[in-house]
Amino acid sequence: MPNRAGLEVGGHPMGLSGSFAVSRAIAVGGQLVRVVFTQEPKHRSASAIDDGRNPANYGVEITAGTGANLMVVGVKPDVVAWPAFGLTSDTEFALDIQTDRSMVVGLQYLVTVKSPVVAADGTAIGSPYSAAFIGAARPSRTRQIRRKIGLVDFASDPFSGGIMVDSAGDWASQEGLPGTRKRIWRIALTGLGKFSFLKNFGLKYDIKKPATVSILSGLRTDLRQQIAAQPDVASSETSVVMDQRGILELTIKAKTSTGQQMSDTISATPDGGISTP
Q1: CATH of the domain spanning 175-275
Q2: pLDDT digit string, tens, across residues 50-61
Q3: Burial class (CB in 10 A: 0-12, 13-18, 19+), 267
């Protein structure tokens, strides 16, 4: 018998016959369906006859299309509360039920909650007991593969200096083995402290001036240590030799972290000249 508001006695403005019912269902994974209730369901034990965690209290059937029947094999123990996917207000709660196989994407299903299920406060479930949903695939997360960027610098020659311009007329960039080679030789040709922002960069001795045996030994050690400190150098060897004319021959061999090899020799004369083979 309708009341003054035109609703069934004990009814609900949304067509619910009681305060505890099924609001909606939505697939949240290939084998996971979120069943949303109008209030918090009982969720204490998967063995209790009237508990929302008992998988026997759910049925899933196909209502449009053809596919394999699904069985509910489990219910996740934690109740889902607002804010969460599929819930529209803080008065709704949900349980995620697990099926024995993946749903067919786009196929229409109907999940039904059986009558023994009660709310957390003991209220019996009322109509509607069922809700339709569309099958969905399990979300997959992919990681974009990006090219690993190494050390990139403005292109220049360590011996002649100057700006190197690319085909577009812009300052050319330099990376890989050419960039490693430039940085290594820049160490050898720069005096210690010449770059104010790199206090420990460069050599203590001027390679263009005559030197004693002890100075050459320290020069070799200092150069080897600074080369080894470069982030893209895996290993290196240095050789420093000065002949009777005062010409210093400096050889550097290095292997980069990507497996590339370099082997260069320069000669430095007391009058300030630098020559390469």
Answers
A1: 3.10.450.40
A2: 999 999 999 999
A3: middle
